[in-house]
Amino acid sequence: MTSVITAEQLTMRFRGCDALRGVDFTIEPGSVFALLGENGAGKTTMIRIMTGFQKPTSGQCTVCGLDPTRHPLEVRRRVGYVSDSPALYDWMSVGEIGWFTASFFPKGFLEYYRESIRRYEIPEDRKIRHLSKGQRAKVALSLALAHDPELLILDEPTSGLDPMVRRDFLESMIDRAASGRTVFLSSHQISEVERVADTIAILHEGKLRIVAPLNELKQSMTELTVSLDDPLVAIPTIDTPAEVMCDELLGRQRRLVVRDFTPEMHTKLASATGVTGVSERPLSLEEIFIACTKGSLSRPASAPESADETPQETAMEAAS
Q1: How many Å apart are CA 270 and CA 228, to the nearest integer?
Q2: Cα–Cα–Cα angle for 86, 320, 75, nearest 5°?
Q3: Domain 5-205, what fold?
Q4: Does 220-319 carry CATH code 3.40.1620?
C-alpha cells in the first residue's frame, strides 16, 4: 500500500528562523492525520511544501506519489484544500464559483458541488460576499471535495466557526476516512482533533516531538508524582526506552511526564533513597500537547489565561 504523504528530513529556513527542522513522517491511505502545534510551530509551512507552493531548504516530500516541487499542478489536482480563511471571489455567486472551478477539473465536478451546496442549504444565487463565515467554509469544503480528491488538506478549517458548522466538518472527516480517502488536519483545537484523528503528530518550534496513533499515544504517556522527604533529593534517572517529556519540582514533589514508563521503573523509583511515594495517572491529549510544547503542566501564577506568542513563535508564524 503506497503512502499518501511521506516527509524525510524536511528543513525550511527563513531569515531569522528555522520553520522546519528535520521533519519525518508517513501517512497511510484511509486515515485522519492531525498535525498539532502552536501558532508559529511550522504547520502552514509544512502544508505549503506539500502543495508545491514552497520549496524546502533540504529534505524530500512526496504527496500521492509525486514530488510537489517537480509536479505542483498534478499534486493540486489530486488534493483538496481548505484553509481557515478560504480565498473566494466575493463578486461571484455560489453557483458561479462552482461553475468557474469546474473548468479546472474532470467532468462530474459541478454535479457533485451542486449536490453538496444543496445539502448545506446554501442558495446558488447568493453572492459570496453575503455569506456568513460558516457558509463560506461550507462552500470551500464543497469546492475542495467535488473532484473526490485522494487527499484532503485542512489548515485550521474550523477556526471561528459556530459549534454546528464545526460538527459538520468533523463528521465529514470521519466519512472521508471511512471511504478510504485520507485527511491531513492541521489544528491547535485539541478537543476537535481528539474526536476524529487516527494519528497524532505534535510539532514544536519546527521539530516533531511525537508521531503516533492516538490510542497508543494516550496509553504510553504517564504523569508521575514523586514525593520526596527533601526537595534536594536526586531521583534515579529514567532509563531508555522511556522518554521524559517534562520534569518539574514543586516543593517536595517532582512531577514528570514520561512516555513508555514501565512497572519495573516504578519499582526502582519508589525504592530510591529519599522517595516517600510514587503515584501515576494517565494524561489527556491536551495535557500531552502542553507537556510536549511547554515543558510543564503547571501554569505560572502570574500567567494570563491566553499568553501572547513568544518572539520566536511570532517570527516563525510570519515565515509560515
Answers
A1: 10
A2: 60
A3: Rossmann fold (3.40.50)
A4: no
pLDDT digit string, tens, across residues 129-142: 999 888 888 899 89
Give domain limits for the chain. Answer: 5-205, 220-319
Q: Any long-range contacts for 64-68 (C-beta under 8 Å, 24+ apart)?
A: 64/4, 64/150, 64/151, 65/2
What pLDDT digit, counting tens, does each position of 50-73 carry?
Answer: 999 999 999 999 999 999 999 999
Tens of pLDDT, residues 207-251? 999 999 999 999 999 999 999 998 888 888 888 888 998 899 888
- Alpha carbons 275 and 233: distance in angstroms, whole number: 8
Three-state SS at 69: coil
Question: Which candidate, 235, 278, 231, 287, places its Cα nearest to that of 259?
Answer: 287
DSSP H helices in 184-303: 190-196, 214-220, 263-270, 285-294
192-224: burial string, b at 16+ Cβ within 10 Å, e else: bbbebbbbbbbbbbbebbbbbebeebbebbbbb
